[in-house]
Amino acid sequence: MRNLELAGRSVARSLNGMAATSHSLATLTAINVLQDGGNAMDAAVAACAVQGVVEPESTGIGGDCFVLYAPRGSGEVVAFNGSGRAPAAATAAWYGEQGIDTLERYSPHSVTVPGSIDAWDRLLRDHGTRSLGDMLQPAIRFARDGYAITERVATDWDSEVETLSHDPATAGIFLPGGKPPGLGTIHRQPALAASMELIAREGRDAFYKGAIAEDLVDHLRALGGLHSPADFAEAEGEYVEPIKSSYRGFDIVQCPPNGQGVIALLILNILAGYDLASLGEFTAERLHLEIEAMRLAYQERDAHLADPAQAEVPVEHLLSEDYAAELRGRIDPRRASAAPAPAPVAAHADTVYLSVVDKDRNAVSFINSTFNSFGSGITGPKSGVVLQNRGGAFSVDPAHPNCIAPRKRPMHTIIPGMMVKDGRAVMPFGVMGGHYQAAGHARLLTNLLDFGLDVQQSMDMPRIFAQPGEGATEVEAESGVPQEILSTLEDMGHRFCEPPKPIGGSQAIQIDWEAGTLAGGSDPRKDGCALGY
User: Fold this and answer.
1) Phi-psi region of 138 (alpha: psi -120 to 50; beta: other; left: phi over 0)
2) DSSP state of 379
């Protein structure tokens, strides 16, 4: 029964299908596709394309995506890695010769080849019922005819004036009249609309081998980038074997590295050794264990996570019960420990995540991102495509497994999740918020499985995050965390700061196989919207 003391927005419930995204226009697009006879994959791609227009700070066709798909709700989950690669000319030696020790956000060296369009096309051909061209049409209309700026988008946009000012092509689109468009005003992206229309007519090769690729490569090279037409022409995502771990009787499925899903599982494995339910759903004791587990897990992430095609990533070791027990043994239940990550990491970032389940119970967990708000801030002057800055997650240290190298994929923060029980998918879920995502997965699931909160309450609860990175000591705490809890944690040795904006966001859809119903949650931090029919 729903705990009315924690009630905020209600859980969305339906019989046939459901979509949960971070924007009402994207959710409505997905529902329209489902009601028109499309399946969950069709709806997910159409909704994500719309988000790339109406939430341009968080995602777009210049970004990457990862997807988990449960056909007809099967526990045999399909995983797709749609993340892009570094240019073939990108070597650690070259950066060393140039005196470049950091791949700065606004630099062309932070740009990896976008993987989204290739991923959308492949997933639709293999698992959808509609074409990429058809599923791009709603996004094309919004880009061409305009969309109204919402509260969260306006807030994010206002904070990125510096980012948008670096490239005249970017400023021309996103700083009309020299400033961000105001709340409720109409914004249009005609160049992006034309690019998507070209892709709709000619297919994914229009992005990777045609005029769009030429525009992006020319612009990046003019800025000093190493990208070539071949880097775009040879871009291709791939199906990968998902990884999983068990928590409280449920299988938690994630994409394997180069994403950080293994770190979400590691946090859960550490916490599995505690009786969290006995501590209370919102207590200093529970938060202390979460903070400590986060610090230990993210230390492992920053030491080991990389592209497994070009580096050794010890996934089996990281997910072993013995290793979780070893890490658990380092936690003092009464005192904070210092566990700084051994390598610096790129700053906090934005993303969009969406869940869709259709009438046949095909379930999609879909995440798409340009990393930081507006990515690198670099935009194709003819194509209107904003490019991601995923390359900023690379190291330039040749000794580090995540060191940049030709055609290598960087460590990725974006991770879709899928929960499975007794051979059936029971919840596609995801959390936005850059580095927070692994910690956010663990918090969402412990709220659900240890404390019995419903899916919406599990998202609404105030969040904390121990920021990773060398020398990082402070823990971000949202304003909803009671001061008495913070004071107790400070007495234990933790230090807190206020996050610059709400920590992340989330969406999830629970499948009740026995009742035949769906229950969806959407995070108010990102103007989330869950709808069913």
Assistant:
1) alpha
2) B
Estimate to the nearest angstrom the gap between the alpha carbon of 523 and the chain centroid.
14
172 Cβ contact partners less than 8 Å away, ≥ 6 residues apart: none
For residue 493, the 8-state DSSP code is T
Per residue in 130-185, pLDDT tens? Answer: 999 999 999 999 999 999 999 999 999 999 999 999 999 999 999 999 999 999 99
Q: How many residues does the chain have?
A: 533
Residue type at position 72: R
For residues 429 and 99, what is the distance between their CA atoms, to the nearest angstrom?
Answer: 42
CA-based torsion, 384, 389, 390, 395: positive or negative: positive
> Of 163, 351, 370, 379, which residue is the catalytic one?
351
- Least confident window among 149-158, 206-215, 263-272, 349-358: 349-358
351 is catalytic: yes
Reduce the secondary structure of 319-353 to three states and give it as a string: CCHHHHHHHHCCCECCECCCCCCCCCCCCCCCCEE
What pLDDT shows up at residue 351? 82
Q: What is the pLDDT of residue 343?
A: 46
Q: Give phi and psi for 366, each to the nearest 5.
A: -135, 125
> What integer pLDDT is reported at residue 7 of this predicted model?
54
Cβ atoms < 10 Å from Cβ of 500: 9
What would the pLDDT profile of 343-364 be if each residue is shown by its tens digit?
444 555 668 999 999 999 999 9
Q: Which residue intervals of 55-148 are DSSP H helices?
A: 92-97, 116-127, 132-135, 137-145
* 335-338, Cβ contacts within 8 angstroms, sequence gap of 24 or more: 335/492, 335/493, 336/288, 336/291, 336/292, 336/489, 336/492, 336/493, 336/494, 337/292, 337/295, 337/493, 338/473
The H or E element spanning position 193 is helix 190-202
- Give me the half-sphere count of Cα atoms (radius 13 Å) on the Cβ side of residue 359: 9
Query: 1 pLDDT exceeds 80?
Result: no
Q: Is 357 within 8 Å of 533 (Cβ atoms)?
A: no
Report the run of H or E that residue 30 belongs to, with start and end: helix 24-35
Query: At a CB cut-off of 8 Å and minimum separation 6, what does 399 contact?
Result: none
Query: Rounded CA gap, 169 and 159, in Å?
Result: 19
